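User: Can you predict the 3D structure for this chain?
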Amino acid sequence: MLILFNTFAELPEAYKAFAPTVDVLPLIPLFFFLLVFVWQAAVGFK
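Assistant: Here is the predicted structure, written as structure tokens:
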């Protein structure tokens, strides 16, 4: 099963230049999640 996931984890050759961007993409929802807490702290958790 691990071999199957490893096969899909590699980007095609044409997209190798975008590898650093693709590595950061999963973190974007986490930034929004943290932004919710910062926003609520700013308005006093109403």
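The radius of gyration is 17 Å. The chain is about 65% helix and 0% strand.
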